[in-house]
Amino acid sequence: MPNYELSDFTDLKKIGEGTYGVVYRCHCQKSGHLKALKRIKLEKSEQGFPSTVIREIGLLKELSHPNIVILEDVILEEGRLYLVFEHLTVDLRRYLDRFNAFAGLPPTLVKSFMFQMLQALQYCHVRRIMHRDLKPQNVLVDVHRRFVKLGDFGLAKAFGYPLPKMTHEVLSTCLALSQPPHSLTHSLTHSLVLHR
């Protein structure tokens, strides 16, 4: 992980704001590349950092996949916390809005984006991590390479075994849905036959 300081970043431009932070696009003098800098909001009365931020940092440090946004560094300066991410051009929501103004996304691009997201989710699920906030605003797009990455792991949680108690039908459906799409039809049919 690089060792950045806040002074390494120039030309900050606000590109987004959420419950726990403000995101800026900026130029990194050390690398010469654009970065996304997320400044964490802290209330005056708050003790420490929000649990969602701690969870996001912990999970992103564990994850390394081409379709998951890279957390490059964490900066703590003057009582403020900053997360340094790789910069991607736009989120999927804005990208879709741009295309819907014309003819919509080409089917091949939809399939490619969907495949990339499924790969990212499978990678997370195999490591027992649930994102829990999958929406177009949390999918980042590299417009030039037509590449997508899953971001914003603030609501994500690691889950362990044993799973919470569920009925057989719910458990079978959950297990079936965690399998690859090509075996999904067989799994659902098999589980329905078993539970008649």
From TrEMBL:
Residues 9-196 form the Protein kinase domain. It is an enzyme of class 2 (transferase). Keywords: ATP-binding, Kinase, Nucleotide-binding, Serine/threonine-protein kinase, Transferase. Transmembrane segments: none annotated. It comes from the Eukaryota. It holds the Pfam family Pkinase. One of its GO terms (cellular component) is cyclin-dependent protein kinase holoenzyme complex. The keyword Transcription regulation does not apply. Gene3D superfamilies: Phosphorylase Kinase, domain 1 (3.30.200.20), Transferase(Phosphotransferase) domain 1 (1.10.510.10). GO terms for biological process: G1/S transition of mitotic cell cycle; regulation of G2/M transition of mitotic cell cycle; regulation of gene expression; signal transduction. Its EC number is 2.7.11.22. SUPFAM superfamilies: Protein kinase-like (PK-like). The keyword Metal-binding does not apply. InterPro entries: CDK (IPR050108), Kinase-like_dom_sf (IPR011009), Prot_kinase_dom (IPR000719), Ser/Thr_kinase_AS (IPR008271). GO terms for molecular function: ATP binding; cyclin binding; cyclin-dependent protein serine/threonine kinase activity. It catalyses: L-seryl-[protein] + ATP = O-phospho-L-seryl-[protein] + ADP + H(+); L-threonyl-[protein] + ATP = O-phospho-L-threonyl-[protein] + ADP + H(+). Belongs to the protein kinase superfamily. CMGC Ser/Thr protein kinase family. CDC2/CDKX subfamily. This is cyclin-dependent kinase. It comes from Hydatigena taeniaeformis.
